[in-house]
Amino acid sequence: MAKLIDGKMISQQIKDELKAKVATLKEEGKDICLAVIQVGNDPASTVYVGNKKKACEYIGIKSLAFELPEETTEEELIGIIDKLNNDNDVDGILVQLPVPKHINEDTIIKSISPKKDVDGFHPASVGALSIGQHGFVSCTPAGVIQLLKRSNIEIAGKECVVIGRSNIVGKPMSMMLLRENGTVTVCHSKTKDLKDVCKRADILVVAIGKPKMIDESYVKDGAVVIDVGIHRDENNKLCGDVDFESVEKKASYITPVPGGVGPMTIAMLMNNCVEAGINK
Fold it and tell me: I want to staple 268 with a disulfide (CB 3.0 to 4.6 A). Which of 73, 103, 139, 186 is the partner?
């Protein structure tokens, strides 16, 4: 039976470390401030924004909330981002995605200063990661790396397979594992013999977006399985991309859903904010 990698506990450790760091910065007269912009009132986005505000409050980070109506134009949104880019009191800027259809997501991501891009989505941030330079990294893959490191799971020299090639998870995940000296294969919808490729993995990171798709037939004995997916099953219960019950019997370590990767995303966002404040 696999050991559970407890994302709730590890994310709490990180938040407590950040809380202490922020308290020290305050004593030095430095305040950390995150600006969160939400356009429209998508229910899932509202929940995520609420969680980010709670995390800021816990750690001692000031949060500015911009809750804009659905009909806000792209120009209006860019105008607000420009002001925040030029505000020295603001360390990080986050635009909650998705934005309404009439606003171009890429244009918005590019309008955020790379120095304040705490989501790690700006092309300059992604470019820095790809050539091994300092920059903000996407929060979910950064969280996965912390889960592995803080569970004392060695990445160097291991065969790592990432299923999924999204800009937010799959691609940065593969680059971060490579940076940790893993041997990395990226799989996607056009990969042939997916099962065979996955069965080579010492560390299997699943970000495919299909509920319970990966069962024990994709996993080699003793593999570490990280499930990035989040869905609701036919009984309205939360589940991931991995069929937890069958894979748990075969893996050495596994992340649950909920309580695995999810809590780490916000912890790493907070970490990026603190880094932005220290390095400005």
Answer: 139
Domains of the chain: 30-113 (3.40.50.10860), 139-262 (3.40.50.720)
Among 6, 15, 96, 158, the active-site one is 96
52 is catalytic: yes
Strand residue runs (E) in the chain: 3-4, 33-39, 62-68, 92-95, 159-163, 183-187, 203-206, 224-227, 231-232, 238-239, 253-254
Among candidate residues 52, 158, 171, 250, the one labeled active-site is 52
**Known catalytic residue: 96?**
yes
146-191 tens-digit pLDDT: 999 999 999 999 999 999 999 999 999 999 999 999 999 999 999 9
pLDDT tens readout for residues 74-100: 999 999 999 999 999 999 999 999 999
pTM, two decimal places: 0.96
